[in-house]
Amino acid sequence: MRTLRTAVAAVGVAAAAVAGCSAPPEPYTAAPTETYSLAPLPEGATYVAATPLPEPVECGDPTASLRPFPPGQIPDSASLEAIRQRGRLVVGLDTGSNLLSFRNPTNGEIEGFDVDIAREVARDLLGSPDKVEFRVLNYDEREQALEDGRVDIVAKTMAVTCERRQRIDFSTVYYDAYQRILVMAGSPVRDVADLAGRRVCVGEGTTSLERVERQQPDAVVVTVPMWSDCLVMLQQNQVDAISTDDTLLLGLATQDPHSRLVGPSMGDERYGIGIAQGNDDLVRFVNGTLERIRRDGTWERIYSRWLSELGPPPGPPPATYRD
């Protein structure tokens, strides 16, 4: 069993008290050159006490999904018809992930890579990419929103895992991301080894959190509801680094030219569209849309619009089916 991770400096404890956030279990002694901001922490920021990590759940290949309906052979389906009768596809996402799903300050519209993927599902199901209703979810709300029926699908940088498959279903993979680290220019952090004893901001309820805990158990982890909160904390010197998918880090980096992506990949994150368990017809329909956009060039156009700074389009990840 791991011991409790050393936590934040005394100034960080004071900031946590001001913000009403949970305080770390033990004082963290900063290196003489380190200074920490006294600004209040964002609402919902929480220091994570280390606990023994569970054994990984095994399920074979978690990315294997249901094969799409044959072209032109979509059967009568109560679940699909309910969405058609409603006249809109209800999509769970967040508005704090720049380039993936964010509110454009110029026109007030919700835009981004994940948004455009969801719009393609609406195009095929309802005849228009505009027939969508977006509901903003925190990361730890994604699965419950599907189980409660508050949303039809979740398109929110959601990695397909065996553990999540115990509660919800997934489409085929529509994007391969890689976890890395974001720091401010001049930071001594270069890779995951350098995170020992340093404060790292991670999204609450994300696979990024578990990967940081497994690869660097001596990091001081702070979780937040929205990735935009991590950027604020990094800018205010309340954390030393942010660790998550390169797609999300790129979106944060475009908002602050003094930030830098560093280090090699810590592991891949294979995004799938989340769907409630038992709704096989919707899973197959969504997979049909993903199959179409792989073939007709739509995926490459969406990538080029939002993620081109990561490099040339790598091509959509191939589908894996289990039936």
UniProtKB/TrEMBL annotation:
Pfam families: SBP_bac_3
Keyword Signal: yes
Cross-referenced SMART domains: PBPb
Gene3D superfamilies tied to this protein: Periplasmic binding protein-like II
Coiled coil spans: none
Keywords: Signal, Transport
Leader sequence segment: none
Limits of the Solute-binding protein family 3/N-terminal domain: 88-310
PROSITE patterns: PROKAR_LIPOPROTEIN (PS51257)
Domain of life: Bacteria
PANTHER family hit by this protein: ABC TRANSPORTER GLUTAMINE-BINDING PROTEIN GLNH, AMINO ACID ABC TRANSPORTER PERMEASE
Family to which the UniProt record says this protein belongs: Belongs to the bacterial solute-binding protein 3 family.
Descriptive protein name: Glutamate ABC transporter substrate-binding protein
